[in-house]
């Protein structure tokens, strides 16, 4: 019988802590659409301090944060945004920038580390002399840490270079910083320095930070003033948001310091998995809290089989491909959970191998 679930599907699965629930219960609130919610205003002020930008805005989700940011920068239909082919905005956000905003995506191949070749970004910028045919490039988007690259971090030097390129061509730079605190922790670079070159950043409160709901977008005062109108248009203007922002303030205070430990647990898990016969993890690529596990053909194991076997032990992981599984660490996973997960995976792989050996064809 399962007595404790070890949920490694994502860092979005965390439950609010007692401190968060208590802060939510006591939160001072008012109508945020009318800009009067005091706890919301406190959270905005805190985000402004952390990111070094002029203004901040609470939004219901990372997807809405990215959508509002892109649409605010690309305020003319037919504008074009340059972004990674493997970026969250391009792959997982329902193409909202096109379907809702009339913004045209121009993808550049993401390298394995989540960056895009800077020369390729520059080559993707449209020549305004041909505006009779071309969409108008307005924006470049980066993602840090980069989720589909396995949570790898983009360096401040790289971001600065992309920022310079954007400036040179009169473009804006947006960072999908859903996990910017993970990147900041892993790189040892404060968030305000890491995003210095960006005109806007969207930051999730409900991922590694462990708050139950919400994201923030930050940028200049005029950017946030326009973003606030778009938030209302999209139905993201909410009333007593202080209930949610109170939990986020606790998350900022209590959980940012735990990210380093999440990254250590991810590394331990990655090393342990890589040492199991039939499995492979690119350990060097595990820089933050995400681990991609490849299952080798020789193992007689598949991702669905592994997920099912682990579920029997109370461990939840996410199938990425038939031979690939994703495991994500967060503050509600303990070092003992990592060891238990490793022993259950070893057991499942051994069982699959024994099955293979027992097969009459030996295959
Ligand atoms: C890198 C990245 N950006 C944006 C999002 C979207 O956030 P939300 O799920 O809050 O819409 C996610 C969600 O997993 C993400 O990983």
From the structure above, extract its key features.
single chain, about 375 residues, alpha/beta, seven-stranded mixed beta sheet, four-stranded antiparallel beta sheet, 13 strands, about 15% strand, binds pyridoxal-5'-phosphate
Description:
There is one protein chain. The protein is an alpha/beta fold and 363 residues long. 42% of the residues lie in helices and 17% in strands. It contains 14 helices and 13 strands. The strands form three sheets. The chain has a seven-stranded mixed sheet, with helices on both faces. Strands 9-10-13-12 form a four-stranded antiparallel sheet. It is globular and about 65 Å long. It comes from Heracleum sosnowskyi. InterPro entries: ArAA_b-elim_lyase/Thr_aldolase (IPR001597), Low_specificity_L-TA-like (IPR023603), PyrdxlP-dep_Trfase (IPR015424), PyrdxlP-dep_Trfase_major (IPR015421), PyrdxlP-dep_Trfase_small (IPR015422). It is an enzyme of class 4 (lyase).
């Amino acid at each position: 019988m399962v007595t404790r679930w070890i949920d490694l599907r994502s860092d979005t699965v965390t439950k609010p802590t007692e401190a968060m629930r208590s802060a939510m219960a006591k939160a001072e609130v008012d109508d945020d659409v009318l800009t009067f919610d005091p706890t919301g205003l406190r959270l905005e002020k805190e985000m402004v301090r952390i990111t070094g930008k002029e203004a901040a805005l609470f939004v219901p989700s990372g997807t809405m944060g990215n959508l509002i940011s892109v649409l605010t920068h690309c305020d003319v239909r037919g504008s074009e945004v340059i972004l990674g082919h493997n970026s969250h905005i391009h792959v997982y956000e329902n193409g909202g920038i096109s379907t809702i905003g009339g913004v045209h995506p121009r993808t550049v191949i993401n390298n394995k580390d989540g960056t895009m070749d800077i020369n390729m970004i520059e080559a993707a910028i449209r020549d305004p002399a041909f505006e009779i045919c071309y969409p108008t490039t307005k924006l470049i988007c980066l993602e840090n840490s980069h989720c589909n690259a396995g949570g790898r971090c983009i360096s401040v030097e790289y971001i600065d270079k992309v920022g310079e390129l954007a400036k040179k061509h009169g473009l804006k730079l947006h960072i999908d910083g859903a996990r910017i605190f993970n990147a900041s922790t892993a790189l040892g670079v404060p968030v305000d320095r890491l995003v210095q070159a960006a005109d806007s950043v969207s930051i999730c409160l409900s991922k590694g930070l462990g708050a139950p709901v919400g994201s923030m977008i930050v940028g200049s005062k005029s950017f946030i003033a326009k973003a606030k109108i778009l938030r209302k248009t999209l139905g993201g203007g909410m009333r007593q948001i202080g209930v949610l922002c109170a939990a986020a303030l606790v998350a900022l205070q209590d959980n940012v310091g735990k990210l380093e430990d999440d990254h250590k647990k991810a590394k331990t898990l990655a090393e342990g998995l890589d040492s199991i016969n039939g499995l492979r993890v690119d350990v060097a690529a595990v820089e933050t809290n995400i681990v991609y596990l490849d299952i080798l053909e020789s193992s007689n194991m598949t991702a669905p089989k592994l997920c099912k076997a682990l579920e029997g032990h109370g461990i939840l992981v996410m199938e990425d491909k038939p031979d690939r599984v994703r495991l994500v660490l967060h503050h509600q996973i303990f070092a003992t959970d990592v060891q238990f997960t490793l022993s259950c995976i070893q057991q499942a792989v051994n069982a699959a191998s024994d099955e293979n050996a027992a097969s009459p064809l030996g295959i």
